[in-house]
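Before relying on records like the one below, remember that each one covers exactly one chain. Contacts with other chains, cofactors or solvent are not represented anywhere in the record.
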Amino acid sequence: MNWQDFDWLLDASLEEDAARRDVTTRALVAVDRQAAAEIRARAAGVICGLPLARRLAERFGQHLEFEEGARDGDRVAAGAVVARLRGPAASILSTERTMLNFLQRLSGVATLTALFVEKVKGTNSRIYDTRKTTPGWRELEKYAVRCGGGRNHRMHLADQALIKDNHLALLGGGPEAVNVAVSRVRAACPGLIVEVEVENLAELEAALTAAPDVIMLDNMRPEQVREAAALVSKMVGNGKRPVLARNGKRPLLESSGTITLSDVRAYAEAGADRISIGALTHSAPALNLSLDLIA
């Protein structure tokens, strides 16, 4: 990660909070007063965003020192010191909320991702994120997913082709549209990964004959995923062509659609190679962190 790429976001966030016009701190804290502070985890979780917090401290003032007490991706216990600050007391107080906002949000994403990853441990399934991210925060939130042990789906609309239900509807819908769509995208986007979304076994069979790289099983329950995996194995085993993707392997199966911590294991055991979870980025609760002056 090139943390300088986020200077615009840090500056905008500091300005949003009027951090350099903090009326309370200006009235109560002498300009030359020095202090030290600790950022602690109030709950167990996975830490993420410390280099960004350091960058924020550097952007606010050259004399505000930031020392990491952990590394991004570390699992920490409640009470653990994850960072220390030293310098002008006013600077510490004025940047406190903005710094914690970044750390709590990104650590929350990393922590929730780690919970999902743990649930599928020992299976062949991998946890993926989606594009359901906070505008302007996508690269940061997807980085947090990686810190939690997850993997990134496409970063944006230009780096992978994903044929969804609305694309298929514009082509007339049904199994026939699936085959046509994959063929057209293959021709228009040579070299790119092609994924297609299907909603039933008929569409899945049509997708297999078009040989995409990934087939998304949208809103299918674990028992349907198991049927889908069996169909793929049967078609590949029967030597039907073209079933294999460009890499000479069968298309990967991806489960998606309101999958939770309580049922993600069932999807993994049913045969999903990939499980994409929008909640990793759109619904992750912030990890509880606090900043306290110690001197």
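The first strand starts at residue 34 and ends at 41.
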